[in-house]
Amino acid sequence: MIRIAVDAMGGDHSPAETVKGAVAAAKEFSFQIILVGQEAVIKKELSKYPAFSNISIKNASETIGMDEAPASAVKQKKDSSLNVGIALVKNKEADGFVSAGNTGALMAAALFGLGRIKGIERPAIATVFPIADGRILLLDMGANVDCKPQHLQQFGRMGSLYAEKVLHIKNPRVGLLNIGEEKEKGNELTQAAWPLLKGSPINFIGNVESKEILSGTVDVVVCDGFVGNLILKFSESLAKHIINMLKKEVKKNLIAQLGALMLLPSLRNLRKMVDYDEQGGAPFLGVNGVCIKAHGRSKAKAIKNAIRVTGEAISENMITCLSASENK
Asked: Model-level pTM?
């Protein structure tokens, strides 16, 4: 049975929503779930639900807040839920770890505790975006704001493999995010990264502009973490803005309300597509262990889906595949 450790103390709505999501995952999936955090607090939350034989608790006396300095917090709080959860993976007591907590602290704990896959200089955060005909993967989404050309090459290789193995996209098309399609376009970083990606054993289709991200012409988009994080935050706010605008317009007159009733199934599907709760979590690609970051505002549904994504990465032997790819 796949064993997944879950940080019960991380995120804006922990531990209540985290435990609720873990219970939903235990009911739906055949995973062994280990809730990591303050045992008494977790037991109190679990008492609200029927007992599940595939849920256990690993005590961790400390927590790392969302506003704490990542590296120092990880070093000082040895018994934090982040450190204890990562240690479970390192010691082969768990096959993967999920947290909605402090992103920087999670990355620091993963790097200190698990290390990097050989051949990877900078692990990247990869995020799945829904599009009309499927999904695309973007990386890096914020782990590395200053990159070198070889880092983007490594992102491309890792992203391609994740898209193939976990997202089940055959021969995924990899594009380099740029301000134009010509290979001469861009800054020094993208110009130097282009030939490295072209020479990699991936289906590199060249530069893609931001307008192409959601067009379905590419499956994996590579960029540095500074640009990627801007795209991530803007897209989240834009999706909510569009939905709110539609709601306001619908309320203006009776005809619009009647039309909305007819379109209600489609509107619900649209909302589901842009809802990060449905996408699960973002993998830390390049870390030598399965580590999934859930959104800081995750509620139960998002936690459940983050656990699902973790199980998929484990069942597809993501770490073994990445290691083999980078050490050919």
From this structure: 0.87
